[in-house]
Amino acid sequence: MAGALRHGTMRAGNLAVVLGELDRRGPLTRAALADGTGLTKTTVSKLVGDLIDAGMAVESGAVRDGERGRPGTAVRLSGHRVAALGLEINVDYLAACVVDLTREIRVIRTQPVDNRSVPPAEVIARLRTLATTVLAEAAALGLSVAGAVVALPGPVDPITGTVHRAPNLGWRDVAVTDTLALPLPVVVDNEANLAALGELWFGSGPSLGDFLHVSGEIGIGAGLVVGGGLFRGAHGFAGELGHVVVTPDGPPCRCGGSGCLERYAGQDALLAEGETLPGLVARLRSGDPEALESCTRAGTALGIALTTAANLLDPDTIVLGGIYAPLFPWISTSVTRTLHSRLSQMHPKVPALVISAAGTNAAPLGAAGSVIQRVIADPTPLLPSPPAPHQEAIG
Amino acid sequence: MAGALRHGTMRAGNLAVVLGELDRRGPLTRAALADGTGLTKTTVSKLVGDLIDAGMAVESGAVRDGERGRPGTAVRLSGHRVAALGLEINVDYLAACVVDLTREIRVIRTQPVDNRSVPPAEVIARLRTLATTVLAEAAALGLSVAGAVVALPGPVDPITGTVHRAPNLGWRDVAVTDTLALPLPVVVDNEANLAALGELWFGSGPSLGDFLHVSGEIGIGAGLVVGGGLFRGAHGFAGELGHVVVTPDGPPCRCGGSGCLERYAGQDALLAEGETLPGLVARLRSGDPEALESCTRAGTALGIALTTAANLLDPDTIVLGGIYAPLFPWISTSVTRTLHSRLSQMHPKVPALVISAAGTNAAPLGAAGSVIQRVIADPTPLLPSPPAPHQEAIG
């Protein structure tokens, strides 16, 4: 029994090693996979066979092996079967997307809706409808969805699938996973964390170095990516940029504090009464002085909060995402000016300020991408049961 | 040649494994060391012999092996030969300490002196004198000092041994290592980072979970310890708590910004004209209303900056060190009140606020401790050349 268990663990480890190698460096011949992983060619061939049978890998024609010049058939990740569902509940929209194993975006849907005016159960029911539609589209494409992650605008408990507090939605301790009741494994995570991962995997990625990704919405969150991974803090609540104090005696905030960044640079502070984001962008394009002044004010407050963040976190790059992406041409000047006036004397390196490449879909993409990461780290649940126990360990 | 090199690398790795095991779990028998490291008993015995010859380990009498009940002679780290020098240049004092391999403090000296009134070269010359005295004391104790780390109140470049900018000293790009010219390897690091490590190794340590250690001096720095290691940021400049913006249009700061925490809660803001820290503590003890009000004001500003830090970093614990340690009874109430009023609605866990156990010596202790960490990670430079190449690799 212990032997069989050990064999299963070994096979799972080896499958993850081969799949990870294909993800990072593919396409690769079986010989190159053996070289790269330290496994024998026989073991690699068996594991690759399993991955091909499961639709996770595919042969991609004859290539010349880079290192030794031998001809061989290359293997690469395949996106034709395994996929992941990314979902987002935010204050004024719902979003859903399907991403395949190669991280190609296969389906993406956004639904503008004011989620503040309805009870949580109804919002979650709407998300279920959207998810069901998107899952049907994925099935029509021949995709099998391995799991889902839901992005939520507040601190979450991933164990219970609950969002503790989403002040801009007016939610407190809402059991999202249980209420959603989708027919696949569902995990919850913070929207700003997932948006940062979305930028890492679907946006400008590694070129950013260590970066702070700012998600401007009605709330403002941030995710810090360090060495290709997310810095989450002791309880997973790091990156609450929206509640960085800009002016201690400023207007009260829904978080219970006052003078928080959200009150100066959140979507509600930027838009005029009843205005939409495209409406504001149109006013900015036409040179409307009030709109320009509103962006300068918000950008200065954002610059102050980001000065503080840079002093504490020291990132290479600050990425402006969410609503700050379309507003970048009008908001970035005052952010940059504030950062430089407050940091350049003290800091040899003031962080570069760039626009998000993943854009407004960063959070649902990061959500789907984190399911793909899990599949690549442990593909065994998606494979048939292991064959007879005579396989070999990593060398 | 490659074989010899490989052999040397292997021996170095194995020595580090055995020394690390003794550091974490010692005293241990050779059998227990073999079990814990996966090395054979023969290899362990040779490596332990080398470590005993180098004065880094010592036999500590017969013990019963915990796991299997066999009697054996236990081996433990020895502090009788290898030691490390920790140094600190701060605005109003110099400090030096010697710590042995077991992290016992063997010598510690602090010298109050106003380092703002003299040129950098003179400050560094004074530190050299202090270091030389302390090294002589260490030599008299039979200790051999492996290296030194200098704590500096500003961002440093460890490669060139330079402090970029220490605004409270008025220093800019001062080559500390070269000017100090001590007859042993010297590295520079940021004072607040080292103080956090000092708290980890010589203070309350692992019981704090992930913690933010605040070093209150004339400047205010912080070091974040995550999973037992320091979070340094992309360029090593993380944790500049003193320049977190408390009030954007507040008084100008030496960093080039304005309304920074240092202006509200640094030592100069707390002390009356010409007053010393013991003087302030005496006034506080006698219930002087002005002194109490000064602590409340500083504590509120510190609480605002720490609210921001908690929102961004999400630590388990916040440790108040430096001058905040003696002021803790009078300053902690307003810090705690501010943290709770601003965080408790949103955050399921408001960080605990505790007093530093390492106290005002945290930075030089962390400096010496980081030399010890390096010795334990790579003891070979302190050992005689390796014997003939027939040793065995890690199993």
TrEMBL record, chains A, B:
SUPFAM superfamilies: Actin-like ATPase domain, Winged helix' DNA-binding domain. Pfam families: MarR_2, ROK. Residues 18-60 form the HTH marR-type domain. It comes from the Bacteria. Transmembrane segments: none annotated. Belongs to the ROK (NagC/XylR) family. This is ROK family protein. The lineage of its organism: Bacteria, Bacillati, Actinomycetota, Actinomycetes, Streptosporangiales.
